[in-house]
C-alpha cells in the first residue's frame, strides 16, 4: 500500500543570488532547571545582538515550548556565514552550550539545505531569493 502524499514541495529549489541554496539550522534544547532556562534565553538575546550585522544571516528565532524546551531556528546564506556567526559571538556560544550541558540539558542540533518552497509561498523581504530552475 502506497502512502498518500500529504504535503507537496515545489520542484523549484530555493536559489539565492549567486546560485547557492539556503541553510536552516535547528537546535532543540530540553532544560531541567528553570534557572538554566532563564539564563539560556538571556544568552540567546546577547548573541543575537552581536550577530545582527553578520552577512548571510537572514533570520534567527527562539521558540519556547512546554516543559522547558527551547528551539533555536536560524536561516543562513551558506555554511561560511555560519562560521562568521562563531567569530561574531566569540566565546559566548561555546560557553552557553557547555553551561547548558553541565546543567543536564539535552541538546540536539541539525542543519538542512532548503531544496524548495511550498506552493504559493511568497518570498521573504530580506532574503534575495530567485526561483529559477538550475
Question: Could you give a short description of this structure?
Answer:
It contains 3 helices and 6 strands; from the N terminus they run E-E-H-E-E-H-H-E-E. It is α+β, with helices and mostly antiparallel strands.
| CATH domain fold name | Alpha-Beta Plaits
Low-confidence stretches: 3-13
Provide the β-strand percentage band: 25-35%
Instruction: Please identify the structural class as seen in this structure.
Output: alpha+beta
- Which percent range fits the helix content? 25-40%
Strand order of the largest sheet: 3-4-2-5
How can the largest sheet be summarized? 4 strands, antiparallel
Describe the protein.
The protein is of the alpha+beta class. The chain has a single domain, classed as Alpha-Beta Plaits, CATH 3.30.70.100. It has three helices and six strands, in the order ββαββααββ. The chain has helices spanning 34-50, 79-89, 92-102, and strands at 15-16, 23-30, 57-65, 69-76, 106-113, 129-130. It has a four-stranded antiparallel beta sheet with strand order 3-4-2-5, with helices on one face. A two-stranded antiparallel ribbon has the order 1-6. β3 (57-65) and β4 (69-76) form a beta hairpin. The longest helix is centred in the first third of the chain and has 17 residues, at 34-50. The two termini are 34 Å apart. Residues 3-13 have low confidence and may be disordered.
